[in-house]
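Title: Comparing notes on inverse folding

I've been comparing how different people in this forum approach sequence design from structure. To keep things fair, I'm posting one structure and asking everyone to reply with a full sequence. Here's the target:
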């Protein structure tokens, strides 16, 4: 068993995106002179990699730091420490010229499609503006042809080019947001809960569209969601976050069938069964997520974990890897019997 808290150079080459020890701390200021009296540790030492053409699902409760990671990768918020490598380029140290190209290759689709679209612009104007910024077309005719091609790719048509965002349904607006992200011919998309604002009836069609586009354009995804069933459908690997840290990372089937961390096990048990007659006993987690301002010592999950010991309350577990499954827990646990099998180790 070995620690994979930081990716090696050889492992980094296998991935389009590599995040090493990323931290995002927001200062808390007080008083007349706005003196810093503490920090909100939204992201506190996160490492992962995403292979080209693959999807990493990022799950966890609200406030665990998922969206902050996404924004830090794109430099929409400033990282406190760590490294982010995209295709070998250190994003956090890139200059203006490099960032212009990186912003073309790295795009994001937000939760609320209405808030992310300018209500004063038609769809044609929205798409053409992105093309002009990134220089992907030479003239208006090329811009029109590309806009029409992309709209048809996402299930819309020419008549939709000249409408405003308020004239569309939620699902159609999200399709427009997807088309706008694809305008720049990106390699990597961050999908920040792209279906959470949509009706259940249209969620499946948008998710299937995203999977089809991934194949057509050879895209790499970071898929953020709290819907575990959706994450399983979309992802190749899944990272589980709790209070600013990744507590488990593995292949999606391994995570769902054989979770190693007590927090992941509880998340899996909470997935609804698509059978109205099925009886499933759900034992909710006790307590609330601690504040990122006052993080408990030792394992961050220990105040809510029934397996916690004195060691858990004093020592913070390291993310360790065994047979491709990474977990940050001091103990190996058999959840079927509720007993500890042994201790995790670097040996």
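Reply #1:
Here's my take.
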């Amino acid at each position: 068993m070995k620690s994979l808290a930081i990716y090696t150079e050889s492992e980094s080459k296998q991935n389009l995106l590599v995040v090493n020890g990323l931290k995002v701390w927001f200062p808390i200021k007080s008083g007349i002179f706005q003196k810093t009296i503490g920090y909100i540790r939204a992201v506190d030492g996160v490492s992962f990699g995403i292979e080209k053409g693959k999807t990493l699902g990022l799950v966890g409760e609200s406030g665990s730091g998922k969206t902050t990671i996404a924004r830090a990768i794109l430099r929409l918020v400033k990282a406190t420490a760590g490294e982010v490598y995209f295709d070998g380029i250190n994003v956090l140290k890139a200059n203006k010229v490099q960032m212009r190209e990186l912003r073309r290759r790295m795009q994001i689709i937000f939760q609320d499609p209405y808030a992310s679209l300018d209500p004063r612009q038609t769809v044609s104007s929205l798409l053409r503006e992105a093309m002009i910024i990134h220089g992907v077309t030479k003239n208006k005719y090329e811009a029109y042809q590309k806009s029409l091609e992309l709209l048809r790719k996402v299930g819309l048509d020419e008549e939709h080019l000249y409408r405003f965002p308020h004239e569309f349904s939620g699902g159609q607006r999200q399709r427009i947001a997807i088309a706008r992200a694809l305008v720049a011919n990106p390699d990597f998309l961050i999908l920040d809960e792209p279906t959470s604002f949509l009706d259940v009836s249209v969620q499946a069609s948008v998710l299937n569209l995203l999977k089809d586009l991934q194949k057509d354009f050879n895209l790499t995804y970071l898929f953020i969601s709290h819907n575990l069933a959706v994450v399983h459908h979309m992802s190749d690997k899944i990272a589980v976050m709790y209070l600013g840290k990744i507590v488990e990372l593995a292949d999606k089937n391994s995570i769902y069938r054989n979770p190693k961390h007590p927090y992941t096990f509880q998340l899996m048990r909470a997935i609804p069964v698509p059978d109205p007659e099925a009886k499933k006993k759900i034992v909710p987690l006790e307590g609330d997520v601690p504040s990122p301002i006052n993080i408990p010592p030792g394992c961050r999950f220990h105040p809510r974990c029934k397996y916690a010991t004195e060691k858990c309350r004093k020592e913070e577990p390291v993310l360790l890897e065994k047979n491709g499954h990474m977990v940050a827990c001091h103990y190996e646990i058999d959840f079927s019997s509720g007993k500890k099998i042994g201790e995790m180790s670097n040996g």
